[in-house]
Amino acid sequence: MIAVAVLMLLSFMGGMLTQRALTKTPQQDANLSYIDGIPVYTDFIPDGSRARPGQTREIKYLVIHETDNFSAGADAAAHNSFIHQNADADSGIVSWHYTVDDHEIYHHLPDTETAYHAGDMMTENGGNMNGIGIDTTNIRRMTGAATGYQLKVRSSDGEPKVIYFRSGSAASQTTPDIVDTIDFDGVKILHVTGIFSALAPNTYDTVSNLVDAARSHGVTVLFDPNPRPTLWPGKEAMIAATNKLAAKSDVFMPGLEEGRLFSGAVDPHDIAKFYLDMGVGKVIIKLGDEGSALFELDGNGSMQKTVVPSFTVNVVDTVGAGDGFASGVITALLEGLDTRHLLERANAVGAIQVTSVSDSEGLPTAEELRDFIASTPRKELSL
């Protein structure tokens, strides 16, 4: 059974929780509540324990960690037992806020207190102080609407079928005024796709307002059209709305066929010119598994082109390749890489992603990415 620890600063000790772990009965005075019929047991780590620093915090980030521990008995109760038994260990202390499995939830620490993340001992560079999470500041809770979700069916040819359930979802009811409360201080890049904007007129207006607000604060805007024709009333409406957003972006990233659809041009150079003439700063065209090309204007107004081939890999699942590519572009921009290395990184992350079944679990660490780029053969590409 897979246990998932949630709510900021979470971790696990892989392989250490087995069926030998003792299940601890929750405190007798625990407040028992329910979430969608699943009981939530409050069983706080004792005050004064080394695994409960007692420092208070402002709740801002939500971090979800999946243990992938399939050992017999490695459920939420076993995880709860583990952190209680090791609350005063001499080393390797771990604690987190919640553990969730398919039938119960354990609450280990008050939400307003910090935890030890992967035994980092609260050090300056540890995960407890620097974990990557989801900023919950602007999350709205909707009544009378479900959370959207998707199902993915695996296939042997690497082209899985994805079924979406987002009609009438809570997200589809988002309104543009949500942008008014966003603090752009410190934000460097905004990445948007054409999916959310296609859900409803109000979500399109929300994305448009978000892009305008970001640019007014000096934020670089990246736009991946990622078209979903079934979400639009018609092809022409989709093209017009997409190009309107593209004209507001600093970096536009269509696939080759997408670029042909939205620009009406066929040749990549003509597609790029169509968007550069709109005022887009950089046009990055994804050329499938062959590689990618970046077009931009130099100081004299002449179009410059950089073409970089992709890598040779065994394809397992193509879903998520575009998102992996985008993450490569984003991190390269943040690190100030030159154009050629930007495309090389984006190609590499996209190529790595298709070697994994998951949409995201194959994403590499910085070291794994460097090793992949250094050791993986390249394809031939000319444009």
Describe the structure.
- The structure is a single chain.
- This protein starts with a strand and ends in an 8-residue tail after the last helix.
- The longest helix is centred in the middle third of the chain and has 16 residues, at 201-216.
- It contains ten helices and 16 strands.
- Helix content is 27%, strand content 17%.
- The strands form four sheets. The protein has a six-stranded mixed beta sheet with strand order 2-3-7-6-1-5, covered by helices on one side. Strands 11-12-13-14-15-16 form a six-stranded mixed beta sheet, sandwiched between helices.
- Helix 6 (256-263) packs across helix 7 and helix 8 runs antiparallel to helix 9 (339-353).
- A hairpin with a 2-residue loop joins strand 2 and strand 3.
- The chain has 383 residues and is α/β, with parallel strands linked by helices.
